[in-house]
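User: For documentation purposes, I need each entry recorded in a consistent format: the amino acid sequence on its own, followed directly by the corresponding structure tokens. There are two entries in this batch. Please keep commentary to a minimum and don't merge the entries.

Assistant: Recorded as requested. Entry 1:
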Amino acid sequence: MSGYLVLSSTLAIFQIKFLHHPKLLSVLTNGIIAVSEPSVEDDYLGQFPLNFGGIAPFYADLDTTGGQGRVYYREDSSPDILQLAVNYIKRCFPESTFEPSSVVIVTWDSVAPYAGPGEDATLQAKRNTFQAVLASSDSSSYAIFLYPEDGLQFYSTHSKNDNELVPATVGFSQPATNYYLWIKPGLYKTIANEEETLNNLHRSSNLGKQGVWAFEIGGSDIILPTSESPVSVDYGDYDQFQEVTTEPPISHKDSIEISQPEVSYEIPSRGDNIQTSYSIPQPAAEDDFQSPYQTATEQPPPEPPLPTGKNPPLQFPAQQFPQQHGQIIDVEEVDETGIVFRYSTDVQQTCANNRHQCSVHAVCKDYPNGFCCSCITGYKGNGRQCVAEGSPQRVNGKVKGRIFVGNNPIPIVFENTDLHSYVVMNHGRAYTAISTIPETLGFSLLPLAPIGGVIGWMFAVEQQGYKNGFSITGGEFTRQAEVTFLNTNEKLTIKQKFSGIDEHGHLTIDTQLEGKVPEIPFGSSVHIEPYTELYHSSSSVITSSSTREYTVTEPERGGTSPTYTVPYQWRQTISFDECIYDDSHHPVSATQQLSVDSIFVLYNTDEQILRYAMSNSIGPIDGSGEGRSHNPCYTGTHGCDTNAVCRPGANNQFTCECSVGFRGDGRTCYDIDECSEQPTVCGSNANCNNQPGTFRCECLEGYQFSADGRTCVAVERVVNHCVTGTHNCDIPQRARCIYSGGSSYICACLTGFLGDGHSCIDIDECEQSRCHPDAFCYNTPGSFTCQCKAGYRGDGFQCVRGELEKTKCQREQEQFMAFGPRGPRPVGQFIPQCDVYGNYLPTQCHSSSGYCWCVDRDGNEIDGTRSGPGIQPPCIGTVAPPVVVGPSVKPDTIHLPPGTHLLIAQSGRIDHVPLEGNDMRKQDAKALLYVPDKVVIGVAYDCLEKMVYWTDISSPSISRASLGGGEPVAIIKTDLESPEGIALDYLGRTIFWTDSQLDRIEVARVDGTQRRILFDTDLVNPRAIVADPMRGNLYWTDWNREAPKIETSYMDGTNRRILVKDDLGLPNGLTFDTYSSLLCWVDNKTASVGMDRSIKLTILPYILLFFRHSALSFTKGLFVTYKDQIVLFHAGTKRLECMDPNQLGRRKILEGIQYPFSITSYGKNLFYTDWKRDAVVAVDRTVPEENDNFQPPKRTRIYGITTALAQCPQGHNYCSVNNGGCTHLCLATPGGRSCRCPDNTVGVDCTERN
């Protein structure tokens, strides 16, 4: 739906000539301000550019029905609002003389994304608030977009047509031009239309205030283009307009007509089919449009880099003014942002609801259109931040830089360097130290004393009627300075962010240096003469520029010390917020003079510390020195205590007065201990901490400061009730808890249940006749099953007369068991074994010889699996059990509670068992993921992104799912036969897996891309695999019956070697404990056969037959002589062992276990899965003994097991940062890494290197 706003004056936008309605705008619920007739919603949704003129601060399918947000809009000409608009526009366009007569303010407040029935409830719960302001004068127009400090909650909405997610768009679109036979689309500009750039809108800015963006959208003095192709001004970082070459749909003449504008108009509902009349404003001819961001002679710049967290989504050209002014400030750190233009609601911006924005040492005063803060007597500042007059100040911060020195082509890069400054306020003297500056750079930075000089400006001695930087800004501002060394034209950029006073009472600063400086030789000294600098103030912006010199004296050489002078130019812009409601907050003079003397610079090579010191005073312009006051308070010759303020009197008279929090005569001042003198000053819920000149109240644990900043109240913590289990949803078997932000959540019944989520009842599907008439229906909780009646076959939904068709296994079984034409079947004939569903059992055994082997789904023997008599190899079934007929459980993860868990894989599901210390909390074990048609074997956990990965051998694939909730995604589905073991390098973001059918080990990125085969030789039955990310090692087992082994290599596949091969049977499971550096495994070794090699395998059945009728038997084995040779059949033991891979010794942890398959470790415990017991068994490796076991409710084979750690182990490898500098796969090695290309990289630009 849309509402109309009739303006008091013409708004010049896009150079459109409004012939019929020059003062009419349409406000659309979908985040658009239309400047020409808008189409009906169905015609334009999901399209950009629009086929009508539109300004879009956040264009998407937005919903305002049912109270889901409101849209407010009005035209405002009040002085405070006009001034606020001018302040923002001049911050981005500092040379503009813009004076608007009115502004249009449109606010979309808590609007929801459109969501159709049955769509994601989590998305439906999200809300966005944003604002657009249009300001126009006789000659130009501007748009200001504002986004809240906590950002936007959603970036896309569902399409009504195909239910796809359509990203939102921020941008501008000119109306299309109708040429009767065809339509020429208008020019357009996209500011942001991807989640990454939309997510950066509130973090970045093109005018120095996070979340605020300004654009020029119209002007009468813009040069017309000489061609149809739009071009941009010469700003290398900026995008250009694009011309649409395809034809969008013809606009539908449909909108709403209202007769009177509203000061505030609420749009309560969506209007998709409203038919009313509207007089169409005629767009200009195509040549009448000219982007304000282009000239007629420049060429389009190259495409800008993709935005990141450090780059705004768009750096728009501020205006056509000389580049050296450098007025655009990129904000990178946290800055307070909000809906700064009030919209017409009942909330009035007054002291009553904004007192917390003022300092505790300030008073708040209401004005007709807002409020302002001002420091109380004895304190100085802007009201938001106040410090005691005369008290010394401390400034702390960080410095980072990337600086080229002289002709060196390699920059010197440093980060996280400390900056500390101490200011004697009543002398205006600032001491600044920057630590850990390398010697190759330290001397060359000596001339840059103004890095700390800005702190001197903040606390400069104020002459009467003038204000220093802190009195104006309160220590909250951004500064961008450009230094040009005139002899060599080298430039250095300084960006500084001052964030006010922290919780320790210190000012905070972040500094960034980038550019090039002349080289100053090691051991040189630098001298800077006193200088003056003019500071020009306008609304929220202060600028200054000056040219001065420094003198370098180099170390003595040949009895002389070379000396030379270098001129350099300083230009700086300081941006800050000021209260516009109280004119007394503005400096008396728009131009002030900063005088700097007693300048001292030093670089200490032993400590690598750079030191600056200088004295500062602020006063009138005084080029000749006449008229300047020589009062000792201004010259610093007063002799007052450092904790006192100097009060100037007549002529050269003055008095010294101790600062607030001190007592004395002013020449000597002592700290007052407020905590002792006022024991109850902090209240009963806080401790009092005395500090020089003040005291600090510290709330007790469980309390926090209330809005007044003084009273401690109980903490109301945000609780995710879905995680803590404190919600009131029905039990997890019937309902889901969906977290919706804050402490809120939504309850929703699971499929197969009916209710409000708090109480869900089972739906009896059998009452709905869901099964075939010739089938029985069995209702189950949340589902049902259908089974054909006797004499019928089918799946229960379709039943036909007749018996079920026999499987291949059943037919072969009947064939071998039947009597042939010559009589009964021969003795010793092999008969295949089938399961209850007619599938081949994965383990087949010869009943006469006792030999066993593994088979695939077609009954074919798998190479390397045949074992000796009485030994059953650990074969894995490749056929998934039949899925229960009826609605299946949704394949979705259940949110994992906090803490460390065991993840265990069973056929069709993954369960989790919480750990408390080293012990299993068995009563809290639950299903984590249902995949009923899969056979899950290996399982791995990504502690960084909280994802679970698993292998499936039924339909061979590798999949993953987020433990925060969500459906599983198959990341690898091709060129797999039997993927079993899986391991993950959470630092390098790669996965490794074994395939026992293809006999190979592969690696890929965690998203399944960039696959590469590591090994495909000397492997027979590779199964378990584990990674040691911090050391760059890989370990795996191969249970080849002829030569079982445990191997290792680096993660890049180099340095492959055998770790264990002797006294090994069927090494199934493997785990590596990062903290103890132990490699542990379970060996399913059950028997060994020792005999002379002359004994042929063909006679073994007869040997076994002999013992079947013999009385010879021994506890440890069976012995027999055959043709004077000794044959030993040894029973053996199944055991758990560990070793340090860097040493040769092995340690047996436990023997006599039953049928182990997989193993993991946590703390002092080892946990293995046992096929005989259908259980997870815990073993204390320090005792060693079994100390606990857990049997899941579903009694089936348990396959893989892993530990889901609450936090990743501390450490790194060379692939953990920037992918190790590799173009594709980065594979860690001990102390290094290798860059490798994926297989089949035809046409891919990939570089391999070590």
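Entry 2:
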Amino acid sequence: MGDFDPRKLRNICILAHVDHGKTTLADHLIAASGGGLLHPKQAGKLRFMDYLDEEQRRAITMKSSSIALHYKDYYINLIDSPGHMDFCSEVSTAARLSDGALVLVDAVEGVHIQTHAVLRQAWVEKLTPCLVLNKIDRLISELKLSPSEAYYRLLRIVHEVNGIVSAYKSEKYLSDVDSILAGPSGEVCDESFEFLEDDEEDTFQPQKGNVAFVCALDGWGFNIWDFAEFYASKLGASTAALRKSLWGPRYFNPKTKMIVGKKAMGGGTKARPMFVQFVLEPLWQIYQAALEPDGDKGMLAKVIKSFNLCVPARELQNKDPKAVLQAIMSRWLPLSETILSTVVRCMPDPITAQSFRISRLLPKREVAVNVASSNVVAEAELVRKSVELCDSSPEAPCIAFVSKMFALPVKLLPHRGPNGEVLNNLFDEGGSIESDECFLAFARIFSGVLTSGQRIFVLSALYDPLKGETSHKHLQEAELQSLYLMMGQGLKPVGSANAGNIVAIRGLGQHILKSATLSSTKNCWPFSSMMFQVSPTLKVAIEPSDPADMGALMKGLRLLNRADPFVEVTVSSRGEHVLAAAGEVHLERCIKDLKERFAKVRLEVSPPLVSYKETIEGDESNPLDNLKSFTGNSEYVEKATPNGRCIVRVSVMKLPTSLTKLLDESSDTLGETIGSKLEQTHKKFESPSGSAAEDEGPHEALRKRLVDAVESYVASAYRENDKDKKEKCMTLWHQLLKKIWALGPGHVGPNLLLTSDSKGNINDSSVLVCGSSHVSAKLGFIDISRRSDITDETSSGAKQALYAEAESLESSIVSGFQIATAAGPLCDEPMWGLAFAVEAYIYPLATHSGNETPQQQPEQFGIFTGQVMTAVKDACRAAVLQKKPRLVEAMYFCELNTPTEYLGPMYAVLARRRARVVKEEMQEGSPLFTVHAYVPVAESFGFADELRRWTSGACSALLVLSHWEALLEDPFFVPKTEEEIEEFGDGSSVLHNTARKLIDAVRRRKGLPVEEKVVQHATKQRTLARKV
């Protein structure tokens, strides 16, 4: 691997929705590449890349795996990725290491939810995509479409996919324009106009050769260019002209032998587009001749003779017409030739790809250069330039990125090295005997040459070369034991690998947890973090059946955490080991791996632990009145500390949903901004479109989005003729945004703590703890240097001491707010979307008689700061209970596909799961209905199994985490009016509603008190038989 031209290399991945044919396509590419790995007869049946038992059993791919292929004089590294939403993290790891992507779409099912996700992943990682429309044969044999109907169906799918990519382009265009307009005038550089390139042109155009039409199961496929070359001589037209004409509204006039538009053909003629006439109709004729009993068998012989196909006689005499058809089609239009020629022609080599992917991989850092750090910055810039050029010379710095760690049984490692020497695989890098599993790094080399036995630095995502010694905890040095070329499950040892290659590395198992950057120099910025589509939401508590196996379980959890890029292992406050996975299928695989591979002990798994949040009922119809009552402190809860020295008043208001979602989604950026990590190490802020604001810092971009969210909320609440109210409302909101003291919980949550408005005190002896607008200053809403001085210079010494004590209590108030928002009053779940205004007044120490000194009083009730903290926490929780508390639950977006006859059972299952149907439509040209619904996460466990059971396996569902939604039911509902009493009965007989049942279930799990009758029916529990 050391001496080859990087321009002859392609790194590609296959992306698609689940069951759209990725692994089947990979089988045919592997079989055609030679090497004896897979016989062509087994292609599409063996699923070579799905080598795990669980993958073969479920018939879905669960991990991304790579294989090296040969095509002519090209090397192609192919990465097969999962399509199931539970394993979307594997798509992220595959996309980071690739330069191009084959996006598969089922011609019958069309674009699905995961198709959107993988297109976005390819867009964010700046991959060059090619579209592959798979299962074309189903249009003929299953749907029985005519060639014209099939053409318009394919046309619609291509338009839909282009529309998705166009939306991402538009988002980037608008965000880039905003960043240029917001930047200082005169500083717009040429890089800012990158969005102008080719914005109007569709990404996927069959006439450009980047769209292929295939049947992966039967092993045939084609693109427009194949037929253009074939028909060029027959029609007497140039190949270039036919490439442009074989797709779209182009028609062939047989009289004039001219390619014309529809108008030139005249309205009366039944003209067919050239794609229908010259491409689809011959395919339909061959299928009808082969599959129909009365088909024209002479057509098959004609095709064999015209194209000089070498088909063995025994295959033509096969009794199965499907096998005969497959034998002819796979030789006439070989799938591997079509796909690999498209890859070589349309996808960039590593040198070209890294030149335009560099802004995503290693974004430029805006740093203040001083004399001490100038050498570091210069070398870091040299490293960036080497990555951009894909410099494969031995003198270039060696840079690689590890996208994931994967576990492999030690017995599967090669026993001989690249030169035939016998290897010892029983010892790890520490020299001790390893477990049965060996951890390999899935990596791509971006610069330089990597060799086995080389010493290299491992940089975590938080490493900063400018910080020197303080950043050394994010830097490790390791020795690479072995390099392997991945061949699916097999590994081929290599001595060295050049820039552009994808390899597996042994020797980093003790140094990397999930992903990392490898560098031969310390003066290198780490690569940007990968984007994951969802977060692990399904949590279970795990413990061994035998307590003596706890050590084995903890070791197994550590190994699982390293082997799976998406799993999260934590210890709860109650001491439970909590495993978080992306979904039920992912969780089942993790539990199976724990039992059989990593821990090898019997386990007890709890029911799923569902996360909730707590909020209050908000009246969004009149935001101005809400703001006035909130800022006027007309409704507040008052609490006093046990020693009576501090009185706390708290009022609460619900934040707009759009603002709450923005705060929730921007937690990482808020953590960096508020945590003062912006001096030199801030990561470039990325908007949801994946583009970055080049000319402004993250806090400025976030501030603008916060203001936009408030403005859109106010604009939606008031009509155009209510301009006065709208302006007053915006003025009040701008004042509130200037008073943000802290966020919670965890200092980055979606709840606000606001400083007090009150200027006066309760009486002359008390002092108000004012607080500071710390977060507002960090976000740029106010001048960071502005700080009001509350101390009165003319006051007495005792009052001065009281002011100093008030200032020292600010941290206690923030801590009380953090505790309250981390555990709400309903069931100790975090609060969501609330703004708290806290006023804390402190009084001087009371005078004492006798020998008792003032210093003895605080000891009676505990430390004063702790008393204030507790009072703030209790006041915040009481304020929430006073304002109609509500439970907030997570919602899945569910996409279901079902035949018409199973719509009834499907809706019955959705109704039992408290689902809300938002859209239902029939797929054009097929008997399937597509239904979109929102399903609560708490009701989703076992949903897929129940759905399959009630619909006899005909209905399929895909769940992806969508949003948080408040339950409208009052958990403390008691009938009061005559109508309510008539409907629900008196208070004693009213059953708990859904919200109350969910709250009680969480409280029982956490060991909190629950109001319930221990004896339900006392009369039924007497002993009726009097036996002495």
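Summary note for entry 2:
The chain has a mean pLDDT of 83.
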